[in-house]
Amino acid sequence: MIDGLLNLASAFGLSTSAGLNAYIPMLVLALLARFTSLVELGEPWSALTSGWIIGLLVILLLVEILADKIPAVDTANDVIQTIVRPAAGAIVFAATTQNTIHLHPVLAFACGVVLAGGVHMVKAGGRPVVTATTGGVGNPIVSTLEDITATVTSLAAVIFPYLMLAWLFLLVLLFYLFVRRRRQRAEARATASRAVARPMQR
Length: 202
What we know:
This protein has helices at about 1-20, 25-35, 50-65, 75-95, 105-135, 140-160, 160-200. The longest helix has about 40 residues, at about 160-200. The chain is mostly helical and about 200 residues long. The termini are far apart.
């Protein structure tokens, strides 16, 4: 039970990282599976540990890092990555949970796609704003911070999965507080509207 929960936390961290950069969590997973005992990948995901696959991931990562730091090019890259990042999220989620949780592949893929796709949409939507407000100067800075976040989160997801559990709990708590706050504001506006409408009716 505990192992399954930790693997689920790892899958959560890796998939959300894929929404920022598709290749960092895949490369982290591949390298840790090949050179350490922290990760064991079953078939067909053990193919990620192939030297050819690792080399390809390194090349794709270098291209992604460069493209994501050039204004206008980064926006075009985000369009392409609309397919790649959710797919990467699906792969790392399925690979991480296969040996312990035994989720149905379709469900595992769906979880990875939703997590990575959600983060990707926020990233892709925010980048044009950064370009417009900073004249493109802020793009490489923001991109570098995203790459660092993806790397740290990917490593923490595998090495310190308890941190991912804490992060997941914090996200759920923040979401709950956000929804409750919006509901309270809506009720306050409705109460204020009724209070204004009563004297007018008289």
